[in-house]
Amino acid sequence: METNPKKGNASLIASAVGGVTLGWLLKNYVSKQQKLEEHQSVLQRIKQFEKRLYEDGQKRAYDIENIKREVKSRIEV
Q1: What is the pLDDT confidence band of residue 49, given thresholds at 50, 70 and 90?
Q2: Which residue, 19, 40, 47, 76, has fewest beta-carbon neighbours within 10 Å?
Q3: CA max distance for the chain
Q4: At 5, is the pLDDT very low, low, confident or very high (cuts 50, 70, 90)?
Q5: Distance between CA 15 and CA 24 in Å, rounded?
Q6: How far apart are CA 32 and CA 68, in angstroms?
Q7: What whole-number distance in Å separates Cα of residue 23 and Cα of residue 17?
Q8: What is the pLDDT at residue 64?
Q9: Which helix (H) or strand (E) holds 1?
C-alpha cells in the first residue's frame, strides 16, 4: 500500500493553516468582546452621571419653585 507523500503533506499543512487561522480568529473575537465590555462600563458610568445630573436639576428646579412660592406668599400678605 503506497501513499503519496505530497498528498499527506498537503493535508497536514492545510490542517495546520486551518488551526492557526481558527486560533487567530478566536483571539480577535475574545479581544473585541473584552473591548466591548470595557466600552459598556464606560457607557454605564456616563449614563449614571447623566442620571445624577438630571436628578440634581430636578431637585434644584423644585427648590427654586418653592422659593418663588414663598416669595409670592410673602408679597401677597
Answers
A1: very high
A2: 76
A3: 115
A4: low
A5: 14
A6: 53
A7: 10
A8: 94
A9: none
- Amino acid in position 37: E
For cell 468582546, what's the residue?
A: 33
Distance CA 45, CA 36 (A): 14
Grid coordinates representing 8 are: 499527506
Mean of all residue pLDDT scores within the chain: 84
Identify which of 46, 62, 20 has the alpha carbon closest to the alpha carbon of residue 12. Answer: 20
Secondary structure (H, E, C), 32-70: HHHHHHHHHHHHHHHHHHHHHHHHHHHHHHHHHHHHHHH
Angle at 52 between CA 49 and CA 58, to 5 degrees: 145
43/48 Cα distance (integer angstroms): 9
